[in-house]
Amino acid sequence: MAAVNAELRFEHVSFSYGTVPALRDVSFALAPGERAALLGRNGAGKSTLLRLVTGLLHPAEGSVSVGDWETRGRPPESLARRVGSVFQHADQQLFARSLRDDVAFGPRALGHGAAEVARRVDTALAALELSAQAAEHPYDLPPAFRKLATLAGALALEPAVLVLDEPTAGLDRPLRARVARALADRAAAGVVVLVATHDLAFAAEVLERGLVLDRGRLAGDAPLAALLTSSGRLAPLGLAPPTGAALSAALDLPGRPVRQRDVANTLARVAAARGPV
Amino acid sequence: MARLTLERVSFWYPAMGRPALRDVSLAAAPGEVIALVGNVGAGASTLLLVAADLAPRVVGGRLEGRVKGEGGRGIVLPTPWTQLSGMAFTVWDEVAFGPANLGWPRERIAGAVDRSLAALDIGALAARDPATLSGGELQRVVIAGIVAMEPALLLLDEPTAELDPEATRLVWRLVRALAGDGCSVVVATSDLDALPELADRIVWMEDGAVRRIGAPALLAEQSLWEAGLATTVADVWRTARLGAPYPLTVAQAERRWRQ
Predict the structure, then answer these.
(1) Do A154 and A273 lie in a common domain?
(2) What range defines the domain where residue A248 resides?
(3) According to the model, what pLDDT value does residue A169 have?
(4) CA-nearest residue of chain B to A244?
(5) Does any domain span residue A224?
(6) Which chain A residues are within 8 Å of B137, Cβ to Cβ?
(7) Residue A43 is assigned to a structural domain of this protein
(8) How far is CA B209 from the centre of its chain?
(9) Which of A118, A136, B25, B141 maximizes the CB count within 10 A of its CB?
(10) Which among B135, B193, B236 has CB closest to A267?
């Protein structure tokens, strides 16, 4: 259970790496329980935006806030009470001798007592079906499991906002489904979920709103299903509809479903109505 | 003459009781693209490390069976941030690092680097410091560095994991083009939907062993579907309980649907 529910708000945020501008005048707000995909080309500014949420970076102009906390002036370890994150190179986030110790690091650092730490670790590991591997050394597990372990570490903070950078890269379908279930569960508890991803099929399954970055600017903010069925809107952004949505468009399925299960159900219905294929 | 031959190869990582590869035999012919598919822990990454002569030579462990390679080999690891030379202050120099170490004359190095940057559409990054790149940009730089060495055998481990859809298509087109020039490619990928147009053969791995080898049509079969390894279209077709033959791609589905 998240300690607090809080809105994530960007107001006129700009940021540059030296002379290379990364974000320009970005504004949006995500309400508690919203699940958003952050989309865009490589180098569009997605990871920079996520680092601004965690307080690893601070805006050159504008402000980022999580509930009534502005990130400016707050070090990441303080923001960690409200923000959990997983970065692209998740391997580098692990260091303990067992998965359990690794996941416990965050809640311990927040000052929780042993019983509360144990509760949070058990809950987070169970949410990702990692309980059976709790005693294993992270580097005895395949990289995909280490990736899940870093997500468990973020969940164990029980944050109001979860920001994830490519959480499904390198995961197979069963592991993607675990991540999808865990994120849906957190959003249902009021957690803001913001996921930078190129995995549009995963985004279609789990996320509801699409924020699109193009060369550092917020170029789109729309319901994800509408965005993913519009190749006209996706193509200029270097994106393409996920296969399920493309199939639904190619077969002209009614309602243009995008989630794979919905595509299959609609296809079965239409096929039954028109006789044997 | 095969570029890579594995004969009954088993491999154990150091201090591991269970083998990561079990009795694997595989040969890659010139111009062939072989895709390794399987769920996490199936052994695809280990197979690539063995094929690259990094396991056991660099990572340690124990190998049984025979591994034979012909010509230069290059591997793109799934962790691009670990694969930078650390010796270059620009992307151009980073991509030149491999070819320079092959002792090529300067003009040949320059030509290979420029072609490789163009092939990956990262010419605009040539003067950038590799340390300032995004994850996807970095992955393309690493691929460019390996491709610039003109390997006869190209080994790719999830080379598009961090790439946007446009860059992903670019990399798969490049792989086909390199194969067209005679390069042998072995690629481990979870981008199953790309495989019908990318791969000549599919190798399904499970628990360190090769379960099946066949044409991309394998990706619609019942056993692979049950393992979560069907293409999205084949998966939808089967879930909808529509009959065989199962389409693999949107284009194939469309043709069947219009019949």
Answers:
(1) no
(2) 242-277
(3) 86
(4) B232
(5) yes
(6) 42-43
(7) yes
(8) 18
(9) B141
(10) B236
